[in-house]
Design goal:
This protein has 14 helices and 13 strands. The protein is an alpha/beta fold and 419 residues long.
Protein backbone atom coordinates (compact mmCIF):
# COMPACT_ATOMS: atom_id res chain seq x y z
CA UNK A 1 0.00 0.00 0.00
CA UNK A 2 1.00 3.57 -0.62
CA UNK A 3 1.02 5.35 2.72
CA UNK A 4 0.61 9.10 3.04
CA UNK A 5 2.60 11.27 5.42
CA UNK A 6 -0.46 11.24 7.67
CA UNK A 7 -0.48 7.43 7.74
CA UNK A 8 3.24 7.31 8.48
CA UNK A 9 2.85 9.79 11.32
CA UNK A 10 0.11 7.62 12.83
CA UNK A 11 2.38 4.58 12.51
CA UNK A 12 5.13 6.48 14.26
CA UNK A 13 2.82 7.00 17.22
CA UNK A 14 2.53 10.77 16.83
CA UNK A 15 -1.17 10.54 17.77
CA UNK A 16 -0.72 7.98 20.52
CA UNK A 17 -0.45 4.23 20.94
CA UNK A 18 -4.10 3.49 20.23
CA UNK A 19 -4.09 5.48 16.99
CA UNK A 20 -0.98 3.54 15.98
CA UNK A 21 -2.74 0.24 16.71
CA UNK A 22 -5.76 1.43 14.75
CA UNK A 23 -3.80 2.40 11.63
CA UNK A 24 -1.89 -0.88 11.80
CA UNK A 25 -5.20 -2.74 11.77
CA UNK A 26 -6.50 -0.68 8.86
CA UNK A 27 -3.32 -1.30 6.88
CA UNK A 28 -3.74 -5.04 7.41
CA UNK A 29 -7.36 -4.75 6.24
CA UNK A 30 -6.28 -2.83 3.18
CA UNK A 31 -3.57 -5.34 2.32
CA UNK A 32 -6.08 -8.19 2.59
CA UNK A 33 -8.24 -6.47 -0.05
CA UNK A 34 -5.36 -5.18 -2.22
CA UNK A 35 -6.16 -1.55 -1.48
CA UNK A 36 -3.71 0.77 -3.20
CA UNK A 37 -3.87 3.50 -0.53
CA UNK A 38 -5.98 5.10 2.18
CA UNK A 39 -8.73 7.72 1.96
CA UNK A 40 -9.74 10.41 4.42
CA UNK A 41 -13.13 9.69 5.93
CA UNK A 42 -15.57 12.35 7.06
CA UNK A 43 -17.67 10.30 9.47
CA UNK A 44 -17.89 6.93 11.22
CA UNK A 45 -20.77 5.02 12.82
CA UNK A 46 -19.10 2.76 15.37
CA UNK A 47 -19.51 -0.09 17.82
CA UNK A 48 -21.28 0.81 21.06
CA UNK A 49 -19.58 -1.68 23.36
CA UNK A 50 -22.22 -4.28 24.18
CA UNK A 51 -22.97 -5.22 27.77
CA UNK A 52 -24.48 -8.56 26.69
CA UNK A 53 -21.11 -9.71 25.33
CA UNK A 54 -18.49 -10.72 27.86
CA UNK A 55 -15.54 -8.31 27.81
CA UNK A 56 -16.98 -6.04 25.11
CA UNK A 57 -17.58 -2.94 27.25
CA UNK A 58 -14.11 -3.37 28.68
CA UNK A 59 -12.74 -3.28 25.13
CA UNK A 60 -14.26 0.17 24.57
CA UNK A 61 -13.07 1.29 27.99
CA UNK A 62 -9.53 0.25 27.11
CA UNK A 63 -9.65 2.59 24.10
CA UNK A 64 -10.76 5.47 26.28
CA UNK A 65 -8.27 4.65 29.02
CA UNK A 66 -5.46 4.77 26.46
CA UNK A 67 -6.37 8.36 25.68
CA UNK A 68 -7.91 7.64 22.26
CA UNK A 69 -9.95 10.44 20.71
CA UNK A 70 -12.14 10.36 17.65
CA UNK A 71 -10.57 12.14 14.68
CA UNK A 72 -13.85 12.67 12.80
CA UNK A 73 -17.55 13.02 13.73
CA UNK A 74 -18.69 9.69 15.17
CA UNK A 75 -22.03 8.20 16.19
CA UNK A 76 -22.58 5.08 18.27
CA UNK A 77 -24.56 2.03 17.21
CA UNK A 78 -27.40 0.42 19.15
CA UNK A 79 -26.71 -0.89 22.68
CA UNK A 80 -28.10 -3.61 24.95
CA UNK A 81 -30.25 -1.49 27.27
CA UNK A 82 -32.22 1.75 27.45
CA UNK A 83 -29.84 3.65 29.68
CA UNK A 84 -32.41 6.30 30.62
CA UNK A 85 -35.44 4.15 31.50
CA UNK A 86 -34.44 0.51 31.60
CA UNK A 87 -37.16 -0.46 34.08
CA UNK A 88 -39.83 -0.41 31.36
CA UNK A 89 -38.10 -3.26 29.52
CA UNK A 90 -37.33 -5.32 32.62
CA UNK A 91 -33.57 -5.18 32.03
CA UNK A 92 -31.37 -6.21 35.00
CA UNK A 93 -29.89 -3.11 36.63
CA UNK A 94 -26.39 -4.61 36.65
CA UNK A 95 -26.57 -5.00 32.89
CA UNK A 96 -27.60 -1.36 32.54
CA UNK A 97 -24.82 -0.11 34.79
CA UNK A 98 -22.28 -1.99 32.68
CA UNK A 99 -23.77 -0.51 29.51
CA UNK A 100 -23.49 2.96 31.02
CA UNK A 101 -19.75 2.40 31.42
CA UNK A 102 -19.51 2.12 27.62
CA UNK A 103 -21.46 5.37 27.31
CA UNK A 104 -19.01 7.11 29.64
CA UNK A 105 -16.04 5.78 27.67
CA UNK A 106 -17.51 6.99 24.39
CA UNK A 107 -18.15 10.45 25.78
CA UNK A 108 -14.53 10.73 26.86
CA UNK A 109 -13.41 9.86 23.32
CA UNK A 110 -15.69 12.44 21.70
CA UNK A 111 -18.24 10.03 20.23
CA UNK A 112 -21.77 11.21 19.60
CA UNK A 113 -23.69 8.93 21.96
CA UNK A 114 -26.96 8.45 20.11
CA UNK A 115 -26.85 4.60 20.42
CA UNK A 116 -28.99 3.89 17.39
CA UNK A 117 -29.16 1.99 14.12
CA UNK A 118 -30.49 5.15 12.42
CA UNK A 119 -27.95 7.89 13.21
CA UNK A 120 -29.17 9.97 10.26
CA UNK A 121 -32.43 10.63 12.15
CA UNK A 122 -30.20 11.85 15.01
CA UNK A 123 -28.50 14.42 12.77
CA UNK A 124 -25.56 12.42 11.36
CA UNK A 125 -26.04 12.93 7.62
CA UNK A 126 -22.97 12.09 5.49
CA UNK A 127 -23.00 13.73 2.09
CA UNK A 128 -22.45 12.72 -1.54
CA UNK A 129 -18.95 11.36 -2.21
CA UNK A 130 -17.96 11.46 1.46
CA UNK A 131 -15.91 8.42 2.45
CA UNK A 132 -17.12 6.99 5.77
CA UNK A 133 -17.14 3.80 7.84
CA UNK A 134 -20.04 1.97 9.47
CA UNK A 135 -20.52 -1.04 11.72
CA UNK A 136 -24.27 -1.14 10.99
CA UNK A 137 -25.34 -2.71 7.69
CA UNK A 138 -28.50 -0.60 7.40
CA UNK A 139 -26.50 2.59 7.84
CA UNK A 140 -24.06 1.45 5.15
CA UNK A 141 -26.88 0.73 2.72
CA UNK A 142 -28.70 4.03 3.36
CA UNK A 143 -25.48 6.03 3.06
CA UNK A 144 -24.43 4.42 -0.22
CA UNK A 145 -27.86 4.20 -1.83
CA UNK A 146 -29.69 7.35 -0.72
CA UNK A 147 -27.06 9.83 0.40
CA UNK A 148 -24.35 8.93 -2.11
CA UNK A 149 -21.67 8.55 0.55
CA UNK A 150 -19.12 5.73 0.23
CA UNK A 151 -18.97 2.96 2.82
CA UNK A 152 -18.34 -0.75 3.22
CA UNK A 153 -19.84 -3.03 5.87
CA UNK A 154 -17.00 -2.55 8.34
CA UNK A 155 -17.53 -4.25 11.67
CA UNK A 156 -15.10 -3.16 14.39
CA UNK A 157 -12.80 -1.54 11.82
CA UNK A 158 -15.22 1.41 11.91
CA UNK A 159 -13.82 2.21 15.37
CA UNK A 160 -10.29 2.27 13.97
CA UNK A 161 -11.48 4.53 11.15
CA UNK A 162 -13.04 6.90 13.68
CA UNK A 163 -9.83 7.09 15.72
CA UNK A 164 -7.59 7.73 12.69
CA UNK A 165 -9.86 9.43 10.16
CA UNK A 166 -8.48 7.00 7.56
CA UNK A 167 -9.74 3.92 5.72
CA UNK A 168 -8.30 1.70 2.96
CA UNK A 169 -9.56 2.41 -0.56
CA UNK A 170 -11.36 -0.78 -1.60
CA UNK A 171 -14.89 -2.10 -2.13
CA UNK A 172 -17.52 0.60 -2.40
CA UNK A 173 -14.92 3.32 -1.89
CA UNK A 174 -14.04 2.71 -5.55
CA UNK A 175 -16.38 4.13 -8.17
CA UNK A 176 -15.82 1.15 -10.46
CA UNK A 177 -17.47 -1.08 -7.84
CA UNK A 178 -20.55 1.12 -7.43
CA UNK A 179 -22.33 -0.38 -10.44
CA UNK A 180 -25.34 -2.69 -10.63
CA UNK A 181 -25.03 -6.47 -10.73
CA UNK A 182 -28.75 -7.32 -11.09
CA UNK A 183 -31.83 -5.64 -12.51
CA UNK A 184 -34.94 -5.89 -10.31
CA UNK A 185 -38.41 -5.18 -11.68
CA UNK A 186 -40.98 -4.54 -8.95
CA UNK A 187 -44.52 -5.50 -9.88
CA UNK A 188 -45.90 -5.64 -6.35
CA UNK A 189 -48.29 -3.08 -4.87
CA UNK A 190 -46.58 -1.53 -1.85
CA UNK A 191 -47.56 0.90 0.88
CA UNK A 192 -45.64 1.86 4.00
CA UNK A 193 -42.40 0.86 5.62
CA UNK A 194 -43.41 -2.70 6.49
CA UNK A 195 -44.02 -3.49 2.82
CA UNK A 196 -40.69 -1.92 1.89
CA UNK A 197 -38.77 -4.02 4.44
CA UNK A 198 -40.43 -7.07 2.89
CA UNK A 199 -39.59 -5.92 -0.64
CA UNK A 200 -35.98 -5.42 0.44
CA UNK A 201 -35.96 -8.84 2.05
CA UNK A 202 -37.22 -10.40 -1.18
CA UNK A 203 -34.56 -8.60 -3.22
CA UNK A 204 -31.77 -9.60 -0.84
CA UNK A 205 -32.84 -13.23 -1.15
CA UNK A 206 -32.29 -13.02 -4.90
CA UNK A 207 -29.15 -10.88 -5.22
CA UNK A 208 -27.34 -11.96 -2.00
CA UNK A 209 -24.37 -9.54 -1.84
CA UNK A 210 -24.93 -7.91 -5.23
CA UNK A 211 -26.02 -4.37 -6.12
CA UNK A 212 -29.61 -4.38 -7.41
CA UNK A 213 -30.85 -1.79 -9.92
CA UNK A 214 -34.47 -1.35 -8.83
CA UNK A 215 -37.22 -0.30 -11.25
CA UNK A 216 -41.00 -0.45 -11.43
CA UNK A 217 -41.97 1.20 -8.14
CA UNK A 218 -45.32 2.94 -8.46
CA UNK A 219 -44.27 5.90 -6.31
CA UNK A 220 -41.04 7.51 -5.19
CA UNK A 221 -40.40 6.09 -1.73
CA UNK A 222 -40.13 8.54 1.14
CA UNK A 223 -37.05 8.54 3.37
CA UNK A 224 -38.51 6.03 5.84
CA UNK A 225 -39.46 3.67 3.02
CA UNK A 226 -35.97 3.99 1.49
CA UNK A 227 -34.45 3.17 4.87
CA UNK A 228 -36.78 0.18 5.22
CA UNK A 229 -35.93 -1.04 1.71
CA UNK A 230 -32.21 -1.01 2.46
CA UNK A 231 -32.40 -2.77 5.82
CA UNK A 232 -34.53 -5.51 4.28
CA UNK A 233 -31.88 -6.18 1.65
CA UNK A 234 -29.05 -6.05 4.17
CA UNK A 235 -30.85 -8.57 6.40
CA UNK A 236 -31.61 -11.35 3.93
CA UNK A 237 -28.51 -10.74 1.79
CA UNK A 238 -25.17 -9.04 2.12
CA UNK A 239 -26.36 -5.99 0.19
CA UNK A 240 -24.42 -2.80 1.00
CA UNK A 241 -25.84 -0.68 -1.84
CA UNK A 242 -28.89 -0.58 -4.07
CA UNK A 243 -29.49 1.69 -7.03
CA UNK A 244 -32.85 3.41 -7.44
CA UNK A 245 -32.73 5.74 -10.45
CA UNK A 246 -33.62 9.29 -9.45
CA UNK A 247 -32.64 8.59 -5.84
CA UNK A 248 -29.15 7.06 -5.87
CA UNK A 249 -26.46 9.50 -7.04
CA UNK A 250 -25.48 9.71 -9.86
CA UNK A 251 -28.09 7.37 -11.42
CA UNK A 252 -31.06 9.19 -12.97
CA UNK A 253 -32.40 6.97 -15.78
CA UNK A 254 -34.14 3.59 -15.57
CA UNK A 255 -32.67 2.87 -19.01
CA UNK A 256 -29.09 3.46 -17.86
CA UNK A 257 -26.74 1.41 -20.02
CA UNK A 258 -24.93 0.14 -16.93
CA UNK A 259 -28.06 -1.84 -16.07
CA UNK A 260 -28.39 -3.48 -19.48
CA UNK A 261 -27.88 -7.21 -19.98
CA UNK A 262 -27.79 -8.00 -16.27
CA UNK A 263 -29.38 -10.98 -14.52
CA UNK A 264 -32.99 -9.97 -13.95
CA UNK A 265 -35.40 -10.54 -11.07
CA UNK A 266 -39.12 -9.82 -10.83
CA UNK A 267 -40.79 -9.24 -7.44
CA UNK A 268 -44.58 -9.61 -7.44
CA UNK A 269 -47.36 -9.60 -4.86
CA UNK A 270 -47.08 -13.34 -4.35
CA UNK A 271 -43.47 -13.06 -3.17
CA UNK A 272 -44.41 -10.24 -0.82
CA UNK A 273 -47.22 -12.34 0.67
CA UNK A 274 -44.94 -15.37 1.00
CA UNK A 275 -42.49 -13.40 3.15
CA UNK A 276 -45.26 -12.02 5.37
CA UNK A 277 -46.68 -15.52 5.76
CA UNK A 278 -43.23 -16.97 6.43
CA UNK A 279 -42.74 -14.63 9.36
CA UNK A 280 -46.16 -15.36 10.85
CA UNK A 281 -45.07 -18.37 12.90
CA UNK A 282 -46.95 -17.52 16.09
CA UNK A 283 -50.54 -18.33 16.98
CA UNK A 284 -52.92 -15.55 15.98
CA UNK A 285 -53.90 -14.14 19.37
CA UNK A 286 -51.02 -15.48 21.44
CA UNK A 287 -48.36 -12.78 21.76
CA UNK A 288 -46.72 -10.71 24.47
CA UNK A 289 -45.28 -7.66 22.74
CA UNK A 290 -46.08 -5.55 19.69
CA UNK A 291 -42.99 -3.77 18.44
CA UNK A 292 -42.69 -0.71 16.18
CA UNK A 293 -39.48 1.06 15.21
CA UNK A 294 -37.11 -1.26 13.36
CA UNK A 295 -34.95 0.36 12.26
CA UNK A 296 -35.19 2.98 15.01
CA UNK A 297 -38.13 5.27 14.27
CA UNK A 298 -37.75 8.68 12.67
CA UNK A 299 -39.58 11.81 13.81
CA UNK A 300 -42.04 11.35 10.92
CA UNK A 301 -42.77 7.82 12.09
CA UNK A 302 -43.31 9.06 15.65
CA UNK A 303 -45.88 11.50 14.26
CA UNK A 304 -47.59 8.60 12.51
CA UNK A 305 -47.62 6.47 15.67
CA UNK A 306 -49.02 9.40 17.64
CA UNK A 307 -51.89 9.84 15.20
CA UNK A 308 -52.70 6.11 15.28
CA UNK A 309 -52.68 6.02 19.10
CA UNK A 310 -54.41 9.33 19.84
CA UNK A 311 -57.10 8.79 22.47
CA UNK A 312 -56.73 5.01 22.44
CA UNK A 313 -55.51 2.44 24.99
CA UNK A 314 -53.23 -0.57 24.66
CA UNK A 315 -54.87 -3.90 25.55
CA UNK A 316 -54.28 -5.06 29.14
CA UNK A 317 -52.52 -8.26 28.04
CA UNK A 318 -50.20 -6.57 25.55
CA UNK A 319 -47.11 -4.39 25.64
CA UNK A 320 -46.48 -1.95 22.79
CA UNK A 321 -42.79 -1.09 22.39
CA UNK A 322 -41.79 1.83 20.19
CA UNK A 323 -38.04 2.06 19.73
CA UNK A 324 -36.26 5.19 18.55
CA UNK A 325 -33.09 7.10 19.28
CA UNK A 326 -32.61 9.59 22.07
CA UNK A 327 -32.62 12.59 19.77
CA UNK A 328 -35.90 11.68 18.08
CA UNK A 329 -37.47 10.86 21.44
CA UNK A 330 -36.59 14.36 22.67
CA UNK A 331 -37.91 15.91 19.44
CA UNK A 332 -41.16 13.99 19.90
CA UNK A 333 -41.40 15.22 23.48
CA UNK A 334 -40.77 18.83 22.45
CA UNK A 335 -43.42 18.54 19.73
CA UNK A 336 -46.05 17.26 22.14
CA UNK A 337 -46.14 13.80 20.57
CA UNK A 338 -44.71 11.79 23.44
CA UNK A 339 -47.51 12.53 25.91
CA UNK A 340 -50.37 11.04 23.85
CA UNK A 341 -48.24 8.03 22.89
CA UNK A 342 -47.37 7.29 26.51
CA UNK A 343 -50.95 7.98 27.61
CA UNK A 344 -52.06 5.06 25.44
CA UNK A 345 -49.87 2.74 27.50
CA UNK A 346 -47.18 2.40 24.84
CA UNK A 347 -43.54 2.30 25.95
CA UNK A 348 -41.08 4.52 24.09
CA UNK A 349 -37.63 2.95 24.33
CA UNK A 350 -34.26 4.34 23.30
CA UNK A 351 -30.75 2.92 22.86
CA UNK A 352 -31.91 -0.65 22.17
CA UNK A 353 -34.70 -2.85 20.74
CA UNK A 354 -36.04 -6.38 21.35
CA UNK A 355 -33.27 -8.17 19.43
CA UNK A 356 -30.53 -6.08 21.05
CA UNK A 357 -31.77 -6.09 24.64
CA UNK A 358 -31.60 -8.77 27.34
CA UNK A 359 -34.06 -10.92 25.38
CA UNK A 360 -31.30 -12.11 23.04
CA UNK A 361 -30.26 -15.72 23.61
CA UNK A 362 -27.25 -15.75 21.27
CA UNK A 363 -25.01 -13.55 23.43
CA UNK A 364 -22.50 -14.34 26.16
CA UNK A 365 -23.20 -12.05 29.13
CA UNK A 366 -21.31 -12.27 32.38
CA UNK A 367 -23.35 -14.55 34.64
CA UNK A 368 -23.04 -11.97 37.44
CA UNK A 369 -25.26 -9.53 35.52
CA UNK A 370 -28.41 -11.51 36.26
CA UNK A 371 -29.55 -11.91 32.66
CA UNK A 372 -32.04 -14.75 32.39
CA UNK A 373 -33.87 -16.04 29.29
CA UNK A 374 -37.30 -14.48 28.90
CA UNK A 375 -40.09 -16.80 27.79
CA UNK A 376 -42.18 -15.14 25.11
CA UNK A 377 -45.16 -16.55 23.24
CA UNK A 378 -44.58 -14.32 20.19
CA UNK A 379 -43.68 -10.76 19.17
CA UNK A 380 -45.76 -8.83 16.63
CA UNK A 381 -43.58 -6.68 14.34
CA UNK A 382 -43.85 -4.40 11.32
CA UNK A 383 -40.33 -5.07 10.01
CA UNK A 384 -38.89 -8.04 8.15
CA UNK A 385 -35.51 -7.23 9.70
CA UNK A 386 -36.84 -7.45 13.24
CA UNK A 387 -38.78 -10.64 12.40
CA UNK A 388 -35.64 -12.27 10.97
CA UNK A 389 -33.49 -11.51 13.98
CA UNK A 390 -36.16 -12.31 16.56
CA UNK A 391 -36.26 -15.76 15.00
CA UNK A 392 -32.47 -16.08 15.17
CA UNK A 393 -31.57 -14.20 18.36
CA UNK A 394 -34.59 -14.37 20.67
CA UNK A 395 -35.73 -17.67 19.20
CA UNK A 396 -39.44 -17.08 19.63
CA UNK A 397 -42.27 -16.93 17.06
CA UNK A 398 -43.14 -13.74 15.20
CA UNK A 399 -46.24 -12.21 13.61
CA UNK A 400 -45.37 -9.77 10.81
CA UNK A 401 -47.89 -7.16 9.66
CA UNK A 402 -48.17 -3.49 8.70
CA UNK A 403 -47.62 -0.61 11.11
CA UNK A 404 -51.31 0.26 11.12
CA UNK A 405 -52.36 -3.33 11.74
CA UNK A 406 -49.74 -3.70 14.45
CA UNK A 407 -51.27 -0.77 16.33
CA UNK A 408 -54.75 -2.27 15.94
CA UNK A 409 -53.32 -5.54 17.24
CA UNK A 410 -51.87 -3.82 20.31
CA UNK A 411 -55.18 -2.10 21.07
CA UNK A 412 -57.49 -5.06 20.48
CA UNK A 413 -55.32 -7.94 21.68
CA UNK A 414 -56.21 -9.66 18.40
CA UNK A 415 -53.67 -10.10 15.57
CA UNK A 416 -54.46 -8.28 12.32
CA UNK A 417 -52.44 -9.79 9.46
CA UNK A 418 -51.30 -7.97 6.31
CA UNK A 419 -53.10 -10.46 4.05
Amino acid sequence: MILSDKDKALLDGNSGAMARQAIEGLIQLGQAYDARDMVDIGYAHIHAGMAMYLGDVELIESLADSGAKMAVPVSTNIANADMGNWQQTGAPEKLVQLQKRAEKAHKSMGSGTCFTCTPYWAGHWPTWNMHMASIESGVTTFANSVLGAKSNRDGYFAVYAGVTGRYPRFGLHLDENRVPTHRVQVEASLSGTADFTVLGYAIGNHVTNGIPFVTGLKHRPNLDELDALGVGMATSGGVAMFILPGVTPPYTDENDSRAANLPSVCIDDRQIKDIYDGFCTGLGDSFDIVHLGCPHASFEEMKHYGALLQGRTIHDNTQLWITTNRNVRQMAKDAGLLGPILASGARVISDTCPISCHFARTCSPDSKLGVKPVELKAIVVDSAKQAHYIRDMIQCPTLLTTTENAVETAISGHFYPRF
